[in-house]
Amino acid sequence: MYEHFVIRAWKERGELCEKPYKREIVPLFGPELRKVPEFNVNITYIDPFSRTQYHSHVIAELIWVLSGHGEVLMEKEKYALEPDTVLYVPKGVFHHIINNSPETMKLINVFAPGMNRAEQKKRVVTKDPPVEQGRD
Predict the structure, then answer these.
(1) pTM higher than 0.85, yes or no?
(2) Which residues are within 8 A (CB) of 5 and not within 5 positions of it... i.e. 6 or more apart?
């Protein structure tokens, strides 16, 4: 009865994004995927020395770093990322994840409330990140 809720994530394939934002996004659960209406769950693999776009979502996101090292820029604030770092990104907050290491960064992304993935992707807003000010 519940076998469609038990997933071997390593067997799933996702959407490949090309340079300069080289990564793979593997959807696992969502309203149109395994009929989970409450949230969306993805695994994201960010290639070494790559990053996500600077972007915001119309729904909140929880990010859990499973492996790799890097940093997150949330608006104008930077935070170090390492395994078992968990962060909450409120809806509308611009952010990007930077993998500044030679290993692949593996993240779990949870979006709530659940939303059709195609609609969610259409409503992502991207822009250039803020320029860092030099120090005197």
Answers:
(1) yes
(2) 34, 36
